[in-house]
Design a protein that fits this description.
This protein has 212 residues and is α+β, with helices and mostly antiparallel strands. The protein has 6 helices and 10 strands, in the order H-H-E-E-H-E-E-H-E-E-E-E-H-H-E-E.
C-alpha cells in the first residue's frame, strides 16, 4: 500500500474513533442527571408549590354552635388560638330553634389575618388557609435513583430526594403557644424537610415530570 494512503487511512480511523468516543461520552452524560441540573429542577419545583400553608377547619367567616359535634371541636380550638394570635376575631350571638336557644360563635378575619389568608378556589371550596411562610428553599440534593425506563410514560425517569427549609416565616407563626395549640404549624415549619420529585429525560434534557 502507498505509505501516503496508509497514513491518510489511519488518520481517518483515528478521527472516527475520537468522534465515536465523544458521542458515547455525551450520551452517558445525558443519561445521568448532574446535581446541578437536579438542583435547578428542585428549586423550580419548590417555587411552583407556593407558600407554606396551614389548612384551617373551614373558610372564613365561619360559625359554630355550642351544641356542635365533637368533630368540630379541633376546628374551634384552632380558631380560638388564631384569635389569640390576632388573625381572627370572634363574636357571640344566639339562635332560637324548636328545642330552645343555641349560642353561636362566629369567626372572621382581622386586618392582619387578611394579609395571609387565602382560599383555594380549584378544590375544597369550604376550606381556608393561612400562609405561614413564603415557601421552601432548597437545602441540598440527597440522592436520586438510577435512571430507568418507565413503560407507562415511555421515558427514562429518576426519583430525586432532596431537603428544603421554609423561608420568610411569619412572625405570628413562630409563637410557641400557637404552635402548641396547632401542632401542624411546627411540623410545616421544620427545617430540612425531605421532599421528592420525579424527573424524566427528554430531547431537551432532564425535566420535572410535573411540568410535562
Amino acid at each position: 500500500m502507498n505509505p501516503g494512503r496508509f497514513k491518510d487511512t489511519m488518520k481517518s480511523i483515528t478521527l472516527g474513533l475520537a468522534i465515536l468516543a465523544t458521542a458515547t461520552l455525551a450520551a452517558c452524560g445525558n443519561g445521568t442527571p448532574s446535581k446541578g441540573e437536579l438542583a435547578r429542577l428542585a428549586e423550580n419545583h419548590l417555587k411552583k408549590e407556593g407558600c407554606v400553608s396551614l389548612r384551617i377547619g373551614s373558610r372564613i367567616p365561619s360559625s359554630y354552635t355550642d351544641t356542635g359535634s365533637l368533630g368540630e371541636l379541633p376546628a374551634v380550638q384552632g380558631h380560638e388560638a388564631l384569635v389569640s394570635a390576632g388573625l381572627l376575631t370572634v363574636s357571640s350571638s344566639e339562635r332560637r330553634h324548636l328545642f330552645g336557644t343555641s349560642k353561636i360563635r362566629t369567626y372572621d378575619l382581622t386586618e392582619a389575618g387578611q394579609k395571609d389568608y387565602f382560599q383555594d378556589e380549584s378544590s375544597y371550596k369550604n376550606v381556608g388557609y393561612f400562609c405561614i411562610a413564603d415557601g421552601l428553599k432548597l437545602d441540598s440534593i440527597s440522592n436520586f435513583t438510577t435512571p430507568t425506563e418507565n413503560s407507562l410514560l415511555g421515558m427514562t425517569v429518576s426519583t430525586v430526594i432532596f431537603t428544603a427549609s421554609p423561608i420568610n416565616i411569619r412572625e405570628w407563626a413562630k409563637d410557641e403557644q400557637l404552635q402548641a395549640a396547632i401542632p401542624e404549624i411546627g411540623k410545616a415549619l421544620a427545617e430540612g424537610r425531605e421532599k421528592k420529585m420525579t424527573v424524566a429525560l427528554t430531547d431537551n434534557g432532564w425535566v420535572d415530570v410535573d411540568s410535562l
